């Protein structure tokens, strides 16, 4: 059996070994509950504070602006639902039609409670431009939430400009940066965003832990009620090992960010060159500003599901779209939002390369793709 090739890094990433080592003490000896007053809680408490400081410094925030959550889904739910409670005049929320379901379903939930939501349609390349937002935003807009980078087609959106426009109209701005944190440079103060969601397992951290950056002064209603953890903003005994692992993984990815970016971009170019050399007919989705390594390809007339399963038989893991929706075999909402023609949409796959992939992986993926596509 050939070596397995994992090329679905937008779905999740392998845990960084240093992060794993950093977590171990908090799962074994230092298992104390960080909220307790006795000395056995001292080290876990310190570890949480160190992690908060480290994460804050990686994204240009202050430590008090970082709130730990159970991952990207919770951070997104909290950002949308936690702001609404302060929006007593029921002013509108604006988001995009191709957000992750963590945002879309949260927006549907607030709509059911009578808060209006408007959905922006991206361009065919996958951009939400300031012109698109300008056509919709008014002084009645309360919150704008637009993702930093799309998880299916990879487009990186002009967040700073969109945020500036939201603020000029008196609205708050949130970004779901789950796909971007740890892969693109992020400075929340330079971006001036009010809230930003992140998830550890997308940047070689552990699963089930993430954070929401909340700019100082922004009022957010607690999403989970209970104890006084996270400055009374997010109840629940802290996932100390997860938080420590997340901080270690983000630190490592931040230190090696440029190097990883260039390396993964090289793999991405190799993949495209190989496909061109093999004269495989395809369309690449997502415009020119895409996440490093995320390659969304549409093969006209092909069946994306069949490609995925045949590559899997060859030991290669890729995706047809968003991993969180793999049971849904309909054309994804993202491909619908960019109005991709059905013959292309049905034949779409997402290859997401990461820092652990090699040129041999890329060559093997391309030759397997060629075989699979020719097998019809
Ligand atoms: N937002 C985006 C853009 C994502 O890609 C994902 C996961 O795929 C999420 C949110 C959900 O994150 P988590 O898996 O940590 O709940």
Structure description:
- It is a single chain.
- With 376 residues, this protein is of the alpha/beta class.
- Helices cover 40% and strands 13% of the residues.
- It has 14 helices and 12 strands.
- The chain has a 7-stranded mixed beta sheet, with helices on both faces. Strands 9-10-12 form a 3-stranded antiparallel beta sheet.
- α1 runs antiparallel to α9, α2 packs parallel to α9 and α3 packs parallel to α4.
- The longest helix is centred in the last third of the chain and has 21 residues.
- About 1% of the residues have low confidence.
- The structure holds pyridoxal-5'-phosphate.
- Pyridoxal-5'-phosphate binds next to α3.
Short description:
The chain is of the alpha/beta class and 376 residues long.
Total strand count, please?
12
Mean pLDDT: 95
Physical arrangement of strands within the biggest beta sheet: 2-8-7-6-5-3-4
Shape: globular
Taking pLDDT < 50 over at least 5 consecutive residues as the criterion, the unreliable ranges are: 322-326
Query: H/E series, N to C?
Result: EHHEHEHEHEHEHEEHHHEEHEHHEH
Approximately how much beta-strand content do the residues carry?
5-15%
* Secondary structure tally, helices: 14
Distinct ligand kinds: pyridoxal-5'-phosphate
The share of residues in helices is 25-40%
Secondary-structure-derived class: alpha/beta
